[in-house]
Amino acid sequence: MIANYSDEQLQKVRPGTVLRELAFLRHGIEVARREWDIPIAVNPVSQIAMPRASKPRERRITFEEMEALLRDCNREQTPLLKPLIYFLIETGMRRGEIMALCWSDVDAQCRTLFILMSKNGDSRTIPFTRAALKILRELPRYDDRVFPISANAIRLAWGRLKKRVCVVDLRFHDLRHVAISRFFEMGVVCAMRLP
């Protein structure tokens, strides 16, 4: 049953997702076996072949591509795209985290941002640069959210922008690599692995 489940999931989601699901299941069964004395002789998840994780993405934006994208942002119908790109580069936040960010989550005095829900489900507080503070101060306040824009609007604007400047195989998420590289250059010790 578990092998069938794994095979079915691999048709729908990436191998890394299936590996995480199976690890969760394996752990649950181990807790049941060892701590709750459920009579299971062998953990069935350990008996199946695990899917191979996909190779991590290595795409890095070039300086020329970044210049072209930022220069052409001014032609985009989505005025928040350019500040959003700059903000991502200054903070290293994920698109979803930026989109969920509310003005009440911004502490300009301490230069920190409160992320209510990160990818792993935890909340966290992150520092931000003076440049990020400048971006925030220049943004118009339409409502509670710092960037009141939908994921679909960003996706479409990003696609149009890339097409206009002939940049291929670059995802919005790839810009986080720029942020992480900048953090290293600034001397921030970071053991984070980009998903």
Describe the structure.
- This protein has eight helices and three strands; from the N terminus they run H-H-H-H-H-E-E-E-H-H-H.
- 46% of the residues lie in helices and 5% in strands.
- Strand 1 and strand 2 form a beta hairpin.
- It is elongated.
- A three-stranded antiparallel β-sheet has the order 1-2-3, with no helix packed on it.
- The protein is mostly helical and 195 residues long.
- The C terminus is likely disordered.
- It folds into two domains: 46 residues, no CATH class; 123 residues, Orthogonal Bundle (hpI Integrase, Chain A).
Summary, kept brief:
The protein is mostly helical.
Q: What number is the mean pLDDT?
A: 82
> Strand share of the residues?
5-15%
Structural class assignment: mainly alpha
Give the helix proportion (percent range).
40-55%
Molecular shape: elongated
Mind telling me the CATH class of the largest domain? Mainly Alpha
Instruction: Please give the alpha-carbon distance between the first and last residues.
Output: 29 Å
CATH topology-level name of the largest domain: hpI Integrase, Chain A
Strand order, sheet with most strands: 1-2-3
- How many whole angstroms does the radius of gyration measure? 21 Å
As an assembly, this protein is single chain
CATH architecture identity of the largest domain:
Orthogonal Bundle
Largest beta sheet, briefly? 3 strands, antiparallel
Number of individual domains: 2
Total helical segments? 8
CATH H level of the largest domain: which superfamily? Intergrase catalytic core
Could you tell me the number of beta strands? 3
